[in-house]
Amino acid sequence: MQLTDKHREYWRRNLNLTGILLAIWFVATFVASFYARELNEIVIAGFPLGFYMGAQGSLIIYVLVIWFYAKRMNKMDQEYGVHEGED
Amino acid sequence: MTALTQSQFFAQLKRYYTFYTGGFIAFVIVLAILEQMGVTPKVLGYLFLAATIALYAGIGIMSKTADVSEYYVAGRRVPALFNGMATGADWMSAASFIGMAGTLYAAGYDGLAFVMGWTGGYVLVALFLAPYLRKFGQFTIPDFLGARYGGNIPRTIGVIAAIIASFVYVVAQIYGVGLITSRFTGMEFQVGVFAGLAGILVCSFLGGMRAVTWTQVAQYIILIIAYMIPVVWLSVKDTGNPIPQIAYGQALQAVTVKEKELNDPSSVLGAKEAEVRALHKAKQTEWEDKIKTLDAAVATGTGAQFLADARAKVETELAELKAAPAPDAKKIAAKEKDLKEFPPTPDALKAKWKKAADGAKAKAGPVSAHAAAFSGKGAEKKLLKDNPSAGAEEIAKARAEDEKAANIKRNNFLALVLCLMVGTASLPHILMRYYTTPSVREARTSVFWSLFFIFLLYFTAPALAVLAKFEIYHHLVGSSFASLPAWVANWSAVDASLMKVVDMNKDGLIQLAEITIGPDLIVLATPEIAGLPYVVSGLVAAGGLAAALSTADGLLLTIANALSHDVYYKMIDPNASTVRRLSVSKALLLVVAVLAAYTASLKPGDILFLVGAAFSLAASAFFPALVLGVFWKRANKLGAIVGMLAGLGVCMYYMYATYDFFGGVAANEWFNIKPIAAGVFGLPAGFLGVILGSLLSPAPAKEVQELVDHVRYPNLEGDIDTQAA
After folding, report:
1. Considering only CB atoms, which chain B residues are within 8 Å of A73?
2. Contact A59 B455 (CB under 8 A)
3. What CATH architecture is B6-232+412-462+534-712?
């Protein structure tokens, strides 16, 4: 089994995507919680923002991150010819 | 069914489960009609529990199998959507279902660590583990460690860590099953535990992963229906909006206004509150004085005598109660219980009194704002109250103290979130589920569905907590003891640890500081608070049972598989026949289940702490070795061994040194981090161990590097095959 440049590029792009999504996860989790007191000063529709992030906002971001990763990677498999056959 | 293609199979499953959901709803409606016709709640409770367990048993028996791949990984053809539901049920335990909203009710913002931690971990599962483990495609997590790092040592450490983390967790689940069964049927707790055990075994015993998967899907459907109905109803009742997750903003504002009023002694409600708080304060002082006399006795070496005297006092009181002209049976029973559970050592007595003092202290203080994050300890407020003309320097000092306390809270919050997330991505019973999808592609999509289904419950829980608070602050506080709402009267009669109201200042009205609520109450009582018939309470119990059973099933299977597959088949007898492997697995399942049920029936204390500890342990032991195994080709056997041992070791040492259950003291804490978040130290130790150990020894063999390439690409030409049949 010999890896081609194309394979290496696939892995590099996977790492980039993983890194970006991990950064989003980090901000939504740790930065948002770290500054929860400051964010709570902003109130939207009855919700202090810091509280809202912990209760719901970050959760929505997690779901979207995973959805995007699955969609993007499944497409990239096809582009680089490393996808699996049907079933 | 074997002749079906994957898409036909998927269509068939959708048909089955749609039909099943319809059938379940019809069953609930029939029970509702029976209730109207006068069937008693107890009978309804039995019907609910019996019918749902029979249903799970039916699915379990239909899915019985003698095929190894079916038994360990459900034949690897579980579609993403259904694997998502099964993971959801596998993941959400009795604590999530029943306890989460109550924790949020009590802790406000600080409780959100659990909401974020138990969902955000799936991002790590999706990005770092699920697709790669699926491509690897064997049966257990130690399998991966064994293949990637070679030799039996990494596998063995993996087995041990998997068993420790899962066993603690499964005991908590069986405990939950016992509580629910005993509460809704009136059985003894111990009987409830073993009845629940039967329910767990019928699902997993005959069909392994295959049976567990299809029952978990069924259990997810029941638990999500059971969670949503009462919350939506309550939301409509309180806000007129049927979407609780949006509507509770309005309720939160109203709660915030009320909190201010209750903390303001110049308002009518606030003045009454202050009165009761003063009474709590007096109680706190009383307990603290008692502790001081105890300490003094211990210091002079008469601790044992003191303990005997205190015990004798309870005995005298009991005798007096019994000798009264009209003996009060309830009081006598309570005293007898006191005497039976009387602390055996002066230390235990002190701990008991300390708890009472802390309880009074919590009630003596102002209510904390629900949405406020990391509040300080109120040093500035106290200073200004005690000394309104305090100088600028004193104020600045008090402020700094508050700031410091708040920052410690924040750091603990962040540490706990990290441990829960990484722990989520390391618990073998969850990772194992991604072996069951047909492809890498489906595994990725399946993590999305998993989190989506978990998200439905977790983003509703904060709404429920606020709606319940709204209800209690607005409708219960200030109402009269003479006309308690029915749900308050009912639940305080059932179990005083769940709901207790005492008129401390004898004004005939309820003050907030006079209400004691157990965390489980919020979910259990919501149907009644919302004014729904009893049948919905039964439904909630069935949902809680489904949550506990499904998690227990997944965990038991993980433990039994680690022993039968990793230890027996891979290490002891690699030539064992299929029949033999499965019978060993089933026998072990039975043994582990009985052991876990026995442990649960002893009612071990601190079960919640131990569950939290399981996350830290799993995170420290597994995460570095698993992730670096995929993302760093250079990682090798020595690295894995050192890393896993270092992670586990640091984590266990920290818990041992800082948690009082193991005789540790808080003074040993590093950076004031609580023992539950020990993983925050174990995790870096684990990573460091893998990296150092690997760099100190030669790079892994070419075959191992090929294995890494193999798991990185869903499909490669001329690829090796690692998938176990």
Report:
1. 131, 444
2. yes
3. Up-down Bundle (1.20)
